[in-house]
Amino acid sequence: MKKVLIGLFLVASLSVLGEKRVENAKSKQNYRISIDSNYYAVDGSLMTMYSKEKVDFKNKYLAAEKKDDTKKIIELLKKYVEKYPDDAFAYELIGTKYSILMNSKEAEKYYLKAIELGDNIDTGLYSLALLYNDDDALKSLHLTPNEEKEKLKIRDKYKKELSNTSFTYESLKDLRNHKISALIGNAYSIYKLAIYYSSTEDYKLSEKYAKEFLEFDKENIEILNILSNAYIAQKKYAESEKLFLPLAQKGMMQAQYLLALGYYHAGNLKEAEKWAKKTFEKPERKQSDDIEAAKELLNRINSKLKELNKK
């Protein structure tokens, strides 16, 4: 059932309200998490885990945020995108900070860059629509009447797109909070976003967050499944092979199956058959529920091989 985007232009900016990050990890028990009514069981210990690669950035970012030093945060984020130029949300966050400083021209520039890089289905889209709905912001852009008309068309188009999805104002704010946490390297938010974007079939973003989570656990079954789906959907078969082949060679059954699945979709039936059969090699695996998926895949491979042999 569709939900209406609550108060899209009647409330303060999502960008501003989403800024304050709440750190409330109180235990290491299992939590159930949700984004827009999708629920998943997640290890609560992930809430206190952060990327080692981003520890310096995280500390500086949180220190600047604590002081409400918007200019410092912009400086930090600009250095961040030099290192991570394809991180779409980082550009949106820079735009947010410029919006707080009432610099609509720079805010627009960074929102558009974020949308260009793929932050174009939820928070980035929302932030730009809010900017174009602000009369003062539009005036500060010094637009011609025709230019202003075009901006308002974009706003109305985005408003309609968001209203036709399952987003609500609160779910967008929740999503943004997790994107901020993921940006500074929080494992819990990275994991949650990987699952969420996989469930919405946004394979570019599910791939991004799943790959980031590999820093914390290179053999997490759910994350490996998400990456396999993302690679196959985007026809990134070389990336699939690069990730799963070393794990498969180590004897990891799930990796062997996912490697075979990637080869199957790539049309490399010989390798697909080889690795699908590998999943049956250890006797204890014959009782595994996962073996049924491997059997089904092998049947599909054999059917295709028979078709090819008939030609």
Write a structural description.
The chain is mainly alpha-helical and 311 residues long. Among the domains are: 50-172, Tetratricopeptide repeat domain (Serine Threonine Protein Phosphatase 5, Tetratricopeptide repeat, Alpha Horseshoe), CATH 1.25.40.10; 237-311. It is 65% helix and 4% strand. It contains 16 helices and two strands. It has helices spanning 14-17, 55-66, 70-83, 88-100, 104-116, 123-133, 135-140, 145-163, 169-183, 187-199, 203-213, 221-233, 237-249, 253-266, 269-278, 291-310; strands spanning 30-35, 38-43. A two-stranded antiparallel sheet has the order 1-2. Strand 1 (30-35) and strand 2 (38-43) form a beta hairpin. Helix 6 (123-133) packs across helix 8, helix 14 runs parallel beside helix 16 and helix 15 (269-278) packs antiparallel against helix 16 (291-310). The radius of gyration is 23 Å and the shape is elongated. The termini are far apart. Residues 1-34 have low confidence and may be disordered.
Q: What's the topology here?
A:
Elements: H1 14-17, E1 30-35, E2 38-43, H2 55-66, H3 70-83, H4 88-100, H5 104-116, H6 123-133, H7 135-140, H8 145-163, H9 169-183, H10 187-199, H11 203-213, H12 221-233, H13 237-249, H14 253-266, H15 269-278, H16 291-310
Antiparallel strand pairs: 1-2
Helix pairs in contact: 2-3, 3-4, 4-5, 4-6, 5-6, 6-8, 9-10, 10-11, 10-12, 11-12, 12-14, 13-14, 14-15, 14-16, 15-16
SSE string, helices as H and strands as E: HEEHHHHHHHHHHHHHHH
**Spans with pLDDT under 50 lasting ≥5 residues?**
1-34
Structural class based on helices, strands and sheet pairing = mainly alpha
* Multimeric organization: single chain
